[in-house]
Amino acid sequence: MSQRVVLITGANGGLGQAIARAFLDEREDNALWLGVHTRRDQVERLVAEHPARCRCVSLDVTDPSAWARAMRELTAATGRLDVLVNNAGRQADGLLGLMQPEAWRRVLGVNLEGVFHGCQAALPTMIGQRSGRIVSVASLSALLAPAGQTSYAAAKAGVLAMTQALAKEVARLGITVNAVCPGYVDTEALASLSEAQRQAALARVPMRRFGQPAEVAAAVRFLACPAAGYITGSILKIDGGIL
Amino acid sequence: MDNAATLRQQVKQMLVENLMLPCTVDDLGDDQLLFGPGSLGLDSVDALQLVVALDKNHGLRIPDPDTARTVLQSVRSIAEALERHLGAQG
Predict the structure, then answer these.
(1) Is residue A69 assigned to a domain?
(2) Does B55 reach chain A within 8 Å, measured CB to CB?
(3) What ipTM, to 2 d.p.?
(4) A124 and B45 in contact by Cβ < 8 A?
(5) A91-111 b/e with 16+ CB inside 10 Å = b?
(6) Number of separate domains in chain A
(7) For this structure, is A152 an active site residue?
(8) Which terminal residue of chain B, N or C, has fewer Cβ atoms less than 10 Å from its own Cβ?
């Protein structure tokens, strides 16, 4: 395996950080471009730790012009893009009957349109090099949609459908497109639950524990690795056995 | 070889190399249709590759499907679009 250029959106969150560290561990010379929007403290820490390998890039995933700027900067510096990880996400849970249309649009904008814009921005470079890996972080909510998550579940289900359709479009160009569906993972979202909610969630997991961000990151890294070249359009659940 | 002929030759080279066509540059006619009945049999993924290659190699941006349908009809139509683009650049 040779050096790879990796772009990760939503890199400041717990999952984004774990994914970044997984690619840093993969090879000593991997180059990471870490997309951030409103928060960047964790990414700045990572960049300080690995100044020669990590770059922080401002990237509102809902803005096509931000994607164009980021890709211009990235390709000018590296000449290629090997891996795109669509990890940026946003939740605004609530009952549909009480949901403001603007809240719906924001969730769909980040979780679904953000992936569309990212793929569209990355594809010309990947097509030009006739290789590339796109991995999108969806959610178990896309498969088992819970009450209160109509917008998030719909957006993530859209990501799965987009993954399968795009995988077919670019399969013969050496580009793979896959998605992971994490269940309950020990990140900021889980930390915001009450103890009673955490116990209820835990009771649903056959493994009787929450997933670790590194476990999701390992799956992302695998789907993005050269050895996974014949896997495309796949959806990988990472959920401790919830069925 | 005049400028237009050189451009057509470059377009044929691009078609053969980027789309990995099972033929040589000399097998392609200037007016050979690329898509549709009686054509070379290219498909939408080939079109996507051509759009990317034209942008990457010549800076010719094809902004929408209608323009793509017009420009990507044949070797000649692509070469003419390139000639206009290069001429506009001075």
Answers:
(1) yes
(2) yes
(3) 0.83
(4) no
(5) bebeeeeebeeeebeebbbbb
(6) 1
(7) yes
(8) C
